[in-house]
Amino acid sequence: MPHSVFVDGAAGTTGLEILDRLAGRDGIALIELDESRRKDEGARREALNEADIAILCLPDEAARQAMGLLDLAMGTRVIDASSAHRTAEGWCYGFPELVGSDRVAEARRVSNPGCYPTGFLALVAPLVREGLLPADWPYTINAVSGYSGGGKSLIERFQTDGAPAFRAYGYDMAHKHRDEMKAHAGLEHGVIFAPSVVSAYRGMIVEVPLHLGAMAGDPTADALRSALSEFYADSPIISVRDGDLASELLLEANAPPSDAMELFVFGNAGGWHARLVARLDNLGKGASGAAIQSLNLMCGLPETTGLRLPAA
Ligand SMILES: NC(=O)C1=CN([C@@H]2O[C@H](COP(=O)(O)OP(=O)(O)OC[C@H]3O[C@@H](n4cnc5c(N)ncnc54)[C@H](OP(=O)(O)O)[C@@H]3O)[C@@H](O)[C@H]2O)C=CC1
Ligand SMILES: CC(=O)N[C@@H](CCC(=O)OP(=O)(O)O)C(=O)O
Questions:
Q1: Is there a single domain that holds both residue 102 and residue 135?
Q2: What is the CATH number of the domain that holds 265?
Q3: Which residues, 6+ apart, have CB-to-CB distance to 167 below 8 Å?
Q4: pTM over cut 0.80
Q5: Where is the active site (predicted)?
Q6: Are residues 128 and 16 in the same domain?
Q7: What share of the chain is helix, strand, coil (3-state, %, to 5)?
Q8: Residue 311 lies in a domain
Q9: Protein residues with CB under 6 Å of any ligand 1 atom
C-alpha cells in the first residue's frame, strides 16, 4: 500500500519544493487540493485526516491551526516545517543525524529544523556533546541566506525593481531561531544571531567564529574538524571539507536545488582562532530536503530517496 501524503501549504515556497521531490515517486500517493480549496478549512480538515502523513508548509499560526484540525483517532502523522513546534513537548526534532534516525522513523510528530539552526547545530551540537566545545560559551552566529528563505513575500521583495542587494536584520536580538539553537545544542546561554539576506534565490552560509585560545581544554581547529569528520563519516548528506582547499566560499545567484550540506573548520596558524562554517541550501537540508528525509524514514524507505544530492 502506498503512503498517502498531504502537503498543507503546497503552493508555497517550501511546499512546492517538497512536491518537486515527491514527483513520480513510487510508494507515495499525494492528496492534493486545487487552488479553490487549498485554504478551505473543511477541505484541509478532510485531507489532513485522510493522510497517513501530513507535511505542514505553513506560517506558524496556520500550522498550529492545522494541528487543531486533526482528529487524533485518525492517526495522521505530522511533519511540521514551520517553527511552531521546534522546542515543543512531544515533538521529535527532525534532524536524524543528531537525534538518531530511529527516533524520527518512529515519531508521530516531527518538527523540521529551521534553516539557520540546521547549519549551526550541525557544526556545534556534536562538538558540545563530545565535550570539545563548552556548553556555557557565549556563541555568536553570523549568517547569510538566499532570499527564498523568507518565503513568497521576501521573494517578491527581492524580485521587484529596486530590490536590495543585501539585507541585514535581526537587530531586535530576538530572532525566532535563537531558542531552537540554544535548546538543541544544549547551551547554557542564549546566542547572538546576526542573519542577513543576499540577492541569490537559494543557499546559505552559517558561520560560528570561535576564540579557541580562551576556552578551557585548548581545543584546536584540527581537533574540531576531525571530530566532525568522524561524527558525519556515514552521512550521505553532510560532509566535512578540508578547509585548506577553500580560500573563499560562494553562493551562486542561480544555484540548483541541493539537499547536501558542507561543513568547514578554518583555523589560524597558531590554532587559537577558528571559524566553523556550514554551507547549505535553505530549501534543501534547510527545509524541503529535510522534510523528505524525515518522510523517507517514517515510511521505512532509504533516507536519501528523492533527495537532490550531487553525484558521488
Ligand atoms: N523558505 C524557507 O527557506 C524555509 C521555510 N520554512 C518554514 O516553512 C513554512 C512555509 O514557509 P514558505 O514556504 O517559505 O512560505 P510561503 O509564504 O512561501 O508559503 C506559505 C504557504 O502557506 C499558504 N497558507 C498560509 N496560510 C494558510 C492557511 N491558513 N491554509 C492553507 N494555506 C495557507 C500560503 O498561501 P498563499 O500562497 O495564498 O500566500 C502559501 O502558499 C514557514 O513556517 C517557514 O517558516 C522553514 C525553513 C526554511
Ligand atoms: C531569509 C529569511 O527571512 N529567513 C527566515 C527563516 C527561514 C526559516 O528557517 O524558516 P522558519 O521560519 O521555519 O524557521 C527568517 O529569518 O525568519
A1: no
A2: 3.30.360.10
A3: 196, 197, 198
A4: yes
A5: 115
A6: no
A7: 35, 20, 45
A8: no
A9: 9, 11-15, 38-39, 57-60, 62, 81-83, 114-115, 148-149, 151-152, 282-283, 286-287
Helix (H, G, I), strand (E, B) or coil at 75: coil
Q: Report the C-alpha gap between 268 and 275 in whole angstroms.
A: 9
Q: What is the pLDDT of residues 207-239, one digit of tens each?
A: 999 999 999 998 999 999 999 999 999 999 999
Specify the CATH number for the domain of residue 87: 3.40.50.720
What cell was used for 174? Answer: 530576538
- Kindly indicate whether the ipTM for this predicted assembly is greater than 0.90, answering yes or no: yes
Residues 285, 286, 287, 292: what is their CA dihedral angle, to the nearest 10 degrees?
A: 10
Instruction: At 140, list the grid cell.
Output: 555568536
Task: Find the 181 Cα to ligand 2 centroid distance in Å.
Answer: 13
- Among positive and negative, which fits the CA dihedral 23, 24, 30, 32? positive
**Cα R_g (the chain), whole angstroms:** 19
Q: Whole domain around residue 213: which residue ranges? A: 115-282
Grid cell, residue 168, equals 541585514
